[in-house]
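Let us practice reading a record.
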Amino acid sequence: MLLRPCLEDDLDAITAIYGHAVATGTASFELEPPSRDEMARRRSALLDAGYPYLVAEVGGRIAGYAYASAYRARPAYRGTVENSVYVDQAVQGRGIGRALLGRLVDECAARGFRQMVAVIGDSANHASRRLHEAAGFTLVGTLHSVGWKHGRWLDTVLMQRSLGTGDDTPPGC
């Protein structure tokens, strides 16, 4: 497995992975899969803002991707990021998500971010909860019935972990 920064050429595979997750799953609360152009716009915005965007390549194919984004837009939150990790359904359960999340944590810490939050769609998403627990995240709360998708109400699970020196220093130090 090769972990590397996401390139423009990776967007077809990323769009397909995310599109499947949106259409069939509950990890994302988006209701319609975004187009490749929209995924390219989102990627560019994240990279321009200084966030890492990674892919996992297995056998020459994109098997998953992960990125960090702003947890909230207000400046006081600048030291906190939210993570997103998606793995192609055909290769889930093979450690790809764990490798991506581990590298993402390292990259965010190296960029001076101090906290990472996971906003996990659907409290029944046990795989994502286990992935985050294995990466050192702890459960901080559950927002009950905050999203409606696939004909049912869904919870959002919040998990968090410190990065670098955590809350011992201001962001960027």
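A brief commentary: Helices lie at 11-24, 36-48, 96-110, 126-134.
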